[in-house]
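Quick one - inputs below.
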Amino acid sequence: MAPIDSIGGLEAYRRKLAEAAEAKADMPTVLVCFGTGCQANGAGPVAEAFRKVIDEQGLKLDVNLGIKTTGCHGYCENGPLVAIRPQDILYLKVKPEDVPEIVEETIKGGRTVERLVYRDKATDEVVARYSEIPFYKHQHRIALRHIGSIDPTDIDDYILAGGYAGLAKALAMDPEEIVSEVERSGLRGRGGAGFPAGTKWRSCLAVESDVRYVLCNGDEGDPGAFMDRSIMEGDPHSVIEGMIIGAFALGSHQGYIYVRDEYPLAVKNLSIALEAAREKGLLGENILGSGFSFDIKISRGGGAFVCGESSALMRSVAGEVGEPRAKYIRSVEKGLYDKPTVLNNVETWANVPEIILKGADWYASMGTEGSKGTKVFSLVGKVNNTGLVEVPMGISIRELVENIGGGVLGGKKFKAVQTGGPSGGCIPERLADLPIDFDSLTEAGSMMGSGGIIVMDEETCMVDVARYFTNFLVDESCGKCTPCRDGLPRILDLLTDITEGRGGEEHVALLEELCDLLTWGALCGLGTSAANPVLSTIKYFRDEYDAHIRDKKCPAGVCKALITYSIDPEACTGCRLCAKNCPQECITGKRKEAHVIDTSKCIKCGVCKDVCTFDAVRIS
Amino acid sequence: MEKVNVTIDGRTFEAVKDKCVLEVAHENGIYIPSLCYNSEVTSSGGSCRVCLVEAHQGGRMRLVTACNYPVRKGLEVKTDTPLVRRIRRGVLELLMARVPDSEVIREMAAAEGLTEVRFREDTGENERYKCIACALCTNVCAEVVGVYAISMINRGADKKPATPYLKPSDVCIGCGACAYACPTGAITLKEKDGVRRIWGKDFPMVRCSVCGTPYIPEAQVDWIVKRTGKDRSFFDKCPDHR
Amino acid sequence: MTDVAQFDRIIERYEKTEESLLAILQDFQREFHYVPEEGIRRLSEVMEVPESKIYAMGTFYKALSLTPRGRHTIKVCTGTACHLKGAPLILETLERELKVKRNGTTEDGEFTLECVNCVGACAMAPVTLVDEVYHGQTRASKVMDIVKKQVGS
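Output:
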């Protein structure tokens, strides 16, 4: 097909696609989620099984199979997910052997297969309709607007769903007008610090230069956050469209998407999308006949968390070691190759086309005073429904965990949430009514970060969590500046001492002093925020530090040096399972009699607790 | 050149816009300690954090490294506040723990009243030497000499300057600029019997035809001749006898 | 490994600019399961970029390894969600059973055991990857079975 050479041409093409879709509107469609999670859970064989049944039975269906599959629906824990249209049914944990029944019952007979639909753990209520499942019901999807309903590798799917209409509108606008629209929308950067996107664009525009760059930060490094992955994999065109709009507004002709090395599917789907956009005349020379030219290159990261930091990312794009530089001169003035550069993250870019299309007022009508619009969160950890959720800013932590997340896993006690990855902190349950927005999280000693919400229960040790993040940062520090390079290992030493029972009263004071040094003295954002996990746990969970230091106890039963494993003779049925699996062979006992662990040989590997089906293994 | 007024520790000076705070301070007799910065090397600075000072501008204050913070109109710098001293001491304590053998660091720390380190000294995989991983040596090698024999390798606490694969470098000219620039004297340069040894490689030296002193590695002469087209005979004599 | 043609085949796929360096090094890694010294040397020659610079990249980026990796790579995700749900015990089990330390390779060159700081599959925590195949909800007691089943030993 020849490239589309005008805005009108795009609309004509969309109409043509819509007419073709209209003709098949009543045709049942099976959408198999091909997100990373569902593929790991076996979505491939499920799609195969659908194809086989359909081939055999000669059903005339438009089945989304093979390459025609969707991005991540976000409800990964219950994958593989299969959605059936037009009934709007969502089946969970579908296995290939379920497929004939789905075809027979739902597709042919229009009935629901009850055993495969969502069942509320508390009320036992059955919910078949996709949009009514609590996990989805409370969501408001903008950045995730198409994910799960379109095939990310098919640009026509995106165009049919209204894609590139934002670009078409933008091309008819004055660049200045576009920047104002983004400014008025109140969109703040979704990558971490929450800097207003419009302000960034305006400052870049104010710098005189022939060359400007537009960058997309897809180096999603915060452990526990995977919304950017989901967007790049499931709706790559939304990011590309946002970047083209940004480039047009800023007069940039070259863009880069920096993608984490750990995300091969994102690289693949983005590459397919870029190629398709070029073929359609939406990217490259003379976009939609407007005379404006812009292209995008993909830059693969090399596995370095620090490259999510803007100046490090720019050095990495240029083919250097990803070390940050002092940001006394802003990257909107001197960024990539010392040219004015706008860097926004994946989710930020994905919001841009909708803001242009529907207007700043529409976007600003959602969210809170200081944080407009919606935000995608990855709700993970010790919570019943884990996955990606998009909700208006300002929702409380409790609503998120309880209404959408369905409460804490296994009915355990909700202790805290961790937000913001290694730059964030832990917020205790007693502050769970806090509205989630950029400013209130920062005030509470944490930060939004990229939107990871990790739920922690009574079996989570907060000192261990602080140690975990510090260890992460020791591993990821680039080593350029003294406080981060040499301070973090000292913090780790102190935390290790505490978790191993060697901590003294002076340890906490010294920790606080080192944290102060990092916060003030480190070179980049990674270092200056590195103390947050430690400081926030000291602030809210001082009692746990004290228990480790004074009583040499780990109340959550996590810190190995401070715990012992034993078997509850009341609960043990003498099934021998633990004894058979124990790598140390230190569990003894006769069949049908209570077993005993020889603690002198026990290495606390957790295998016995893991295999016991009677919950008889105790940690104290 | 545009000039601006900048205030440092209550005194106001006229300075060239965008010049770094550290140089403006030193020109005016205000001492700010520093390690990783060298005014001849534009890529240096920003890493050791010893020169952190308070920068007050536009109603906000932050700690900045004086060695690369540009002076702009209305900037007020404070080099001797409780915050500055606290953070400087902290940085020096970390450096002392890292390189307990370095006299330079010990002296600088002593000037801040710091003699003891409260945490475990670095006994990890880092060899115990004097390097503070400030990258001045690699910056000099790349930017000033232009041979790129060494680079900062690894990350985090293992970061250090090295030749590729820690093997004698093919391109090193033995000029010793790295050792000369090193603020803590961490780079070993030894000369014996007309041979210089640095970065694990031996460099035969050219002897001065007048005094007989070996004064420059042959490889360095080759490099300069190749680079500048200077006549080789120029190097027959040492600078004292030219 | 002195045949430069095998490196050139990869280098040729890219533009001659420093922007291509990291991508080329990653392709070396995929092709040879590590970045060979000769590869860095050749890349330095062809791209006219100092060897020390490319070597520094090789030591900085975790996706690159300067020593040969095992035939199979097992990655234990140590992201936060995985950590809370038992990744440390999984890692210890693999270390014990395979007799290898994290980020090391077994003596027979069969397995390399790596830790990854989050693979972005947090909803399936804890996650273990065997040769890039994701296994969700892994348990310490079952992880060796998963490995054996997949690599067929």
